[in-house]
């Protein structure tokens, strides 16, 4: 039997050998065997012109990539969503004829899906990663999709390289490790050899990549789009979502623990916030540049690896989005929603950003395989609120029952209906941009600066943020097994900041670079630093560590914390009711086993006269962990004794007091601050 099994195994191995592709050292070809001469740039009408459908290599490469995973999304698989509405503050009639941007006070229903990019549907939500921020506006003129991220730039400049990026960042194919992480060789090898990614990497290594909440992160349209007004006048525009709670993050150690304690932390936070009426709010801002100013900047405004600094092009706040309803069914809504940057309305158009041009092809192609055919637009979550009529018929999943025998244009049997709409009737027309150029596979020279905005980002960071970036680089590269990859990346980022590169080099055991060959950029942009964000206590979760015979003022203080919009949660040795010194009862919601300091924004320690030694030990661990994560800590009554016993090495962000009014004033200030980076931890 053993011999027969070996023969079968050998036979199977020989069979499989016929299908194994050994690509190393070979020339690149298409799937038809045609040798490829260029794999960096898509075919365009002129260096800054639009991508051409004639580019069969790009279309084959992107089509194959779009169909690589079934049934979950290739990227953005791990997501959560909510319904809401967008209310316009001021008319944008001067810039665009889009109807939902005309009348101040008008409201448009929206559906928003937040997501991580790299991980599978089962991965943890606190991975260091870009976060998707996709918004579907159900307007009277049709669906408009603003499909963006929580980072305003991207890794690459041309969509033809998107499959390469995702292949590099996904788990390595020989062992499918690591899941939902960029800390591995293939990703950093891609970065080192595709240096247009430098700016994006600075964002990805910053605190922006580990947000505290979907409610506390910005959203960006990433690309440069066009507004078109009634007179046919065009303006370049970028879109921003600004959270009213400010932009806040967790620290890396906290993120890693959260993935273990609660891998659903972000979706649970969003769900519970909406359920309890803490509706997430984001103000919509636009940056606008007139066509005549397209070339006045020292960067190409169409380059998706560049920002428009807010100090140079101010963000104009034009409305507010409120998320006020959770989904009824995650699969039917969150998983089946189909976004597409090509879903636009009259008054919004595209530019020749080569990454955007490729996305206009990719998204429909992706939905066809993921949602089983061409009728995904008929799923309830994707249907527009306005009627739709055309001659498209049949296919998988068709729900519309078309009446009549005519399904073609032009016709006489149905009086040539459905008929076309003129511009005055709301018919969509593309902006008539003048194109003059040869068909080339190339990229404009204006896209060749890969480091100036990475330097701008570094210059804009506070000292704690810079330390976090250095730590992030050190962790990520430290996980790479190939020393050569680590060295290449360190050398690359010496073009951003020499000290950054040298410190990382020292941490990951490679040679320190000695020369900064990058651009000499002195400018900074305060808007890029989270140090300058909105800071207030609203919706913060506070762990109240409470024991038997707690002080009579504890319920009063908890009620006061609730009244300012925070959420105090009692944590004790066991769930159930405990009694205070005057007979009052409190219900313990979480135990030290089910609750953890990483699940809360701050800690309030009160203890009780009859707390056990086990309570003391558990609370001490809780407090120490919150302390090293720089969180505000409050203490009253018996809780003060515990703080004093722990002899914490700094009192930054530690508020102690027994008088409720004085204590509350100082503690609320501390909660609003979010973190105390000047705290000296152990």
Automatic annotation (TrEMBL):
EC code(s) of this entry: 1.11.1.6
Residue numbers spanned by region Disordered: 1-33
Source species, domain of life: Bacteria
Domain Catalase core per the UniProt entry, residue ranges: 29-417
Coiled coil spans: none
Signal peptide: none
Cofactor(s) in the UniProt record: heme
Assigned keywords, A-Z: Heme, Hydrogen peroxide, Iron, Metal-binding, Oxidoreductase, Peroxidase
Catalytic activity: 2 H2O2 = O2 + 2 H2O
Basic and acidic residues bias locations: 1-27
PROSITE patterns per UniProt: CATALASE_1 (PS00437), CATALASE_2 (PS00438), CATALASE_3 (PS51402)
Functional note: Decomposes hydrogen peroxide into water and oxygen; serves to protect cells from the toxic effects of hydrogen peroxide.
Family: Belongs to the catalase family. HPII subfamily.
Official protein name in the record: Catalase
Protein source organism: Siminovitchia fordii
Gene that this sequence comes from: katE
């Amino acid at each position: 039997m053993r011999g027969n099994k070996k023969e079968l195994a050998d036979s199977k191995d020989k069979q499989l050998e016929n299908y194994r592709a050994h690509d190393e050292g070979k020339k690149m070809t298409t799937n038809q065997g045609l040798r490829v001469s260029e794999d960096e740039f898509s075919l365009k009408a002129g260096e800054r012109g639009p991508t051409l459908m004639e580019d069969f290599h790009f279309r084959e490469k992107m089509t194959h990539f779009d169909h690589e995973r079934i049934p979950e999304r290739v990227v953005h698989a791990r997501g959560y969503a909510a319904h809401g509405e967008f209310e316009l503050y001021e008319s944008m009639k001067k810039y665009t004829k889009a109807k939902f941007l005309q009348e101040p006070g008008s409201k448009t229903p929206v559906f928003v899906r937040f997501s991580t990019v790299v991980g599978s549907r089962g991965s943890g939500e606190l991975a260091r990663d870009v976060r998707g921020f996709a918004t579907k506006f159900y307007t009277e003129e049709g669906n408009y999709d603003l499909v963006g991220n929580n980072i305003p730039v991207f890794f690459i400049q041309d969509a033809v390289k998107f499959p390469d990026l995702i292949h590099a960042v996904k788990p390595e194919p020989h062992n499918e490790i690591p899941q939902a992480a960029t800390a591995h060789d293939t990703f950093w090898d891609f970065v080192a050899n595709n240096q247009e990614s430098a700016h994006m990497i600075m964002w990805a290594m910053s605190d922006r990549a580990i947000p505290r909440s979907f409610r506390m992160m910005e959203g960006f349209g990433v690309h440069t789009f066009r507004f078109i007004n009634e007179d046919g006048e065009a303006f370049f525009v970028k879109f921003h979502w600004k959270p009213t709670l400010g932009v806040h993050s967790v620290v890396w150690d906290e993120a890693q623990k959260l993935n273990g304690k609660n891998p659903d932390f972000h979706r649970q936070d969003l769900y519970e916030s909406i359920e309890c009426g803490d509706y997430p709010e984001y103000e919509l801002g636009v940056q606008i540049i007139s066509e005549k100013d397209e070339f006045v900047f020292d960067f190409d405004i169409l380059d998706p690896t560049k920002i428009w600094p807010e100090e140079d092009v101010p963000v104009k706040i034009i409305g507010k989005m409120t998320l006020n309803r959770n989904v009824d069914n995650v699969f039917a809504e969150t998983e089946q929603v189909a976004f597409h940057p090509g879903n636009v309305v009259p008054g919004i158009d595209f530019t020749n950003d080569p990454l955007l041009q490729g996305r206009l092809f990719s998204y429909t192609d992706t939905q066809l395989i993921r949602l089983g055919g061409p009728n995904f637009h008929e799923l309830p979550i994707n249907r527009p609120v306005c009627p739709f009529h055309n001659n498209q018929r049949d296919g998988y999943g068709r729900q519309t029952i078309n009446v009549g025998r005519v399904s073609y244009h032009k016709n006489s049997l149905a009086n040539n209906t459905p008929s076309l709409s003129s511009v005055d009737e709301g018919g969509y027309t593309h902006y008539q941009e003048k194109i003059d150029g040869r068909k080339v596979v190339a990229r404009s020279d204006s896209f060749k600066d890969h480091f100036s905005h990475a330097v701008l980002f570094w210059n804009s960071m506070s000292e704690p943020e810079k330390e976090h970036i250095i730590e992030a680089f050190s962790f990520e590269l430290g996980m790479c097994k190939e020393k050569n990859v680590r060295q290449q990346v360190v050398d690359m980022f010496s073009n951003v900041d020499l000290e950054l590169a040298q410190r990382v080099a020292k941490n990951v055991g490679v040679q320190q670079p000695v020369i900064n060959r990058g651009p000499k950029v002195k400018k900074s942009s305060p808007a890029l630093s989270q140090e300058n964000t909105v800071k207030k206590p609203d919706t913060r979760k506070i762990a109240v560590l409470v024991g038997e015979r707690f002080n009579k003022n504890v319920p009063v203080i908890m009620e006061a914390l609730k009244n300012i919009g925070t959420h105090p949660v009692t944590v004790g040795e066991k769930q159930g009711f405990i009694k205070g010194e005057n007979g009052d009862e409190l219900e313990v919601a979480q135990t030290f086993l089910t609750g953890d300091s990483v699940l809360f924004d701050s800690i309030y320690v009160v203890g009780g006269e009859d707390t056990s030694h086990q309570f003391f030990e558990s609370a001490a661990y809780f407090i120490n962990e919150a302390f090293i994560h720089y969180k505000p800590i409050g203490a009253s009554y018996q809780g003060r004794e515990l703080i004093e016993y722990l002899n914490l090495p700094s009192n930054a962000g530690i508020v102690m007091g027994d008088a409720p009014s004085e204590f509350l004033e100082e503690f609320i200030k501390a909660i609003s601050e979010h973190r105390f980076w000047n705290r000296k931890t152990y």
